[in-house]
Amino acid sequence: MSHLLEVEDLEVSFRTEEGVVRAVDGVSFHLDRGEVLAIVGESGSGKSVSVMTLMGLTRSPNARFSGSARLRVGRPGEGDVTVGSEVELIGASDEVLRRVRGKDIAMVFQDPMTSLNPVLRVGDQIAEQILAHEDVSEAEARERVVALLERVGIPRPAERARAYPHEFSGGMRQRAMIAMALSCGPSVLIADEPTTALDVTIQAQILDELKQLRDSGEAGVILVTHDLGVVAEIADRIAVMYGGRIVEEGTLDEIFYDPQHPYTWGLLGSIARIDRPRPERLPAIPGLPPSLHDPPEGCHFRPRCPHEFGRCAQTPPLEARVPGVGGHRDRCWLDCEAKRERRVVADGQIGLAPKEAAAGRRDG
Amino acid sequence: MSAQPGTERGAAAQAGEGGAPPLLEAIHLEQHFPIKSGLLFDRVVGHVHAVDDVSLTLREGETLGLVGESGCGKTTLARSLLRLIEPTGGTIRFRGVDITHASRRALRPLRREMQMVFQDPYASLNPRRRVVQIVGQPLRLHGVPRDEIEPRVRDLLDRVGLRPEHLNRFPHEFSGGQRQRIGIARALALEPRLIVLDEPVSALDVSVQAQIINLLDDLQEEFGLSYLFVAHDLSVVRHVSDRIAVMYLGKVMEISPSEELYRKPIHPYTSALLSAIPVPDPRENRRRERIVVQGEPPSPIDPPSGCVFHTRCPRATDVCRSVVPPLTEYPGGHLAACHHPMNVSAEEIAQATRSPLSPKAAGEATPEPAEAAANA
Predict the structure, then answer these.
(1) Fewest CB atoms less than 10 Å from the CB: which of A148, A251, B158, B182?
(2) CATH number, domain at B258?
(3) Is residue B302 one of the residues assigned to a domain?
């Protein structure tokens, strides 16, 4: 049984003047149709580089890749590819990438202002992709565009297809981007911070759109975001990234209610929440994310972690550490019992204890 | 254009007991931008009503949160309050002094007391200047002797959690959070009374957001600062604000003590905003019933008649389409401009009064107590 998309031990590094940046350091994940995988992390955690590498968008003379990303392409009833044939995306030729990109794997970017061409009509930009991948007439492509715009909730789609991007609001541009991504019926949709630039009421509408796509079972969605609220709303599985590595992965409920890695605790603890009484101070994770030029040895979170101990100088492997739960894996040496105890901070919430409190508990 | 005397007294009463004027007051403030068109001669073909008859006060030592979606006029209001742009109508008072049309020269001494921190820490620091020059610039401009500048900057960096060795670095050597600290140090340099923070943490990562918010909290306590905190993120605003004003299409929809706004939003728009925020708790999310507001805000060039929210409001009726709702003051200092208020009892509605902060075009009548029964 193989997955729709299987990424294994992906490494991406860039040579720069200051040295080699290991942006992605051995990342593995998989995706199936009808599910949303959320990749969560702060800026510089490698989440965007990982997914952009799948699309071949990080290729440059100073970039180096290793590992594999296999995508199953083709659906029953399509002549030119055998059902279930696989494409290796890492190191694929430009020719292969061109065929796959937009058709089997498509992407929605964060900034809908800069990802549409300002001098072309919105409808023409979407039609271009259809015409590039499928043998259809222009009239047919145009009809499809109108249907797509209607599907993503743009009012008066036939008229709006003739508009230019500047005539659209931010939310409408993002809808147009989603329409474009869906135009060839991809099996994998990558959404990189699709709602970060949008207002909350519009964000809710766009998330509904992604949910419908997920529920239709047509595609699997990779959602890259830093917003745990959005994640809680829509994800089925979560991978938490830190310093180029996945530090924890599991189902939605596992990550939110039984988080194993101290970084995840810190993330969960530091969100200002509207559904809880307001705390005196917002718990912050002290310090800064690691520099990827010169990451700390061993666990990358070690310098900021209050629970750090001798063993952390060795890199903990990503493995299942919660007894009986195979899919929930993390990179922290602490044993499961200690984690359950230490992640509880003030008033029973999950969070990252201050350094002194954590040290006190360890000695006591 | 000057405010009616009745309004002025009312606004002063709003400011509280002591008799001292509030730090900052806006009275029927309007900021319209002309839209020009024409080949040879520009003709004004319309106006963008960015801020449309807004009245509010900021008290000494207080944090007022200003929230709303993009395009609601919150940033324009903040810029207008600092007199970075000249208002089209209404009055602005800083410590009781009318500064609405004050000249640049007259404003200069006041500029020391009102500072701003900008949203984008990448664009708001000059990339060719060292930190000591950036933070020292306001001091230099206001005539602080050269040899006193560096020690002052050193002290300021220390206050915002940067190290002395950062003094001679350039902005690109810092992370987003550190840059925002530099921006805050610069705003603090002249020991202001008021700092306007325009989306100060929205460009930062969550874990860093918390650090900056806590820093702002400490500085407020240490220097007795007043903040006007402009943001679109209601969960962050709640954390820092004493009171919160919600804006929509250039108008104030609701002003409330911060906690109360989240417990019982009176305006349907506030309620919709709150319910659109995803809660980082999957079980809670599944349980929660959410109102998804359809559509997008209408154009501020030609705002809807009556209540500006009526085109998207699930509770809108005929009266909403024709009569501008007054800002109605409910017990506990909670104001809302709505004909069909939510979360208020019949007694609360009966006690409610028309606030002097209401727009001039607003109707006289406050909501009927029968509304409460309809809400139950």
Answers:
(1) B158
(2) 3.40.50.300
(3) yes
Whether residue A273 and residue B205 make contact (CB cut-off 8 A), yes or no, is no
B214: chain A residues, CB-CB within 8 Å: 281-282, 284
Q: Is A354 exposed, middle or buried (0-12, 13-18, 19+ CB in 10 A)?
A: middle
Cβ distance B165 to B174 under 8 Å? Answer: no
Consecutive 10-residue runs of chain A (364 residues): their mean pLDDT?
89 91 94 96 89 93 94 63 75 91 91 86 94 94 94 88 89 89 93 85 86 91 92 95 96 95 92 79 83 89 93 94 90 93 85 76 48
The answer to whether position B42 is within a domain reads no
**Residue A279 C-alpha, separation from nearest chain B C-alpha, in angstroms:** 8
Task: Tell me whether A159 touches chain B (CB under 8 Å).
Answer: no
A241-288 confidence digits (pLDDT tens)? 999 999 999 999 999 999 999 999 999 988 878 777 777 788 888 888
| β-pair type (A329-330, A188-192) | unpaired
Residues B355 and B262 in one domain: yes
Overall number of domains in chain B: 2
Residue B223 forms part of a structural domain: yes
- Residues B32, B327: Cα–Cα separation, whole Å: 21
Over the stretch B277-299, which tens digit does the pLDDT of each residue have?
Answer: 888 889 888 888 777 777 778 88
What are the tokens at A231? 């994640």
Please tell me whether residues B181 and B230 are part of one structural domain. no
Residues A78, A86 contacting (CB under 8 angstroms): no
Q: Which of B160, B191, B222 is the last residue of a domain?
A: B191
- Verify whether the Cβ–Cβ distance B232 to A288 is below 8 Å: no
Give me the torsion for CA of B242, B246, B247, B252, rounded to 10°: -80
Tell me the two tokens of residue B347: 């007694």
* Distance of alpha carbon A319 from alpha carbon A332, whole angstroms: 9
B176/A232 Cβ within 8 A: no
Same domain, yes or no: B187 and B307: no
Cβ(B305)–Cβ(B222) under 8 Å?
no
A325 shares contact with chain B (CB less than 8 Å): no
Other Cβ atoms closer than 10 A to B361: 11
Range of the domain at B143: 122-191
**How far apart, in whole angstroms, are the C-alpha atoms of residue B254 and residue B251?**
9
Does residue B289 sit at the A interface (CB-CB below 8 Å)? no
Residue B266 and residue B233 share a domain: yes
A42 at B interface, C-beta within 8 A: yes
Let me know whether B262 and B374 are in one domain.
yes
- Do residues B179 and B212 share a domain? no
Put simply, whether B293 touches A (Cβ < 8 Å) is yes
Determine the distance from the C-alpha atom of residue B44 to the mean position of all C-alpha atoms in its chain, rounded to a whole number.
Answer: 29
Q: Are B162 and B296 within one domain? A: no
Q: Do A201 and B292 touch (CB under 8 A)?
A: yes
Gap from B140 CA to chain A (nearest CA, Å): 32
Task: Report the DSSP pairing between strands A63-73 and A5-16.
Answer: antiparallel
Check CB contact under 8 Å for A204 and B292.
Answer: yes
User: Is B105 within the bounds of a domain?
Assistant: no
ipTM over 0.95: no
For chain B, say whether A351 makes contact (Cβ under 8 Å): no
Domain finish residue from B161, B191, B221: B191
Residues B74 and B128 in one domain: no
Return d(Cα A50, Cα A65) in angstroms, integer.
Answer: 11
CA angle B182, B185, B188 (to 5 degrees): 155
Least CA distance to B71: which residue of chain A? A199
Q: Which of A233, A240, A350 to mutate to test the interface with B (most CBs of B within 10 A)?
A: A233
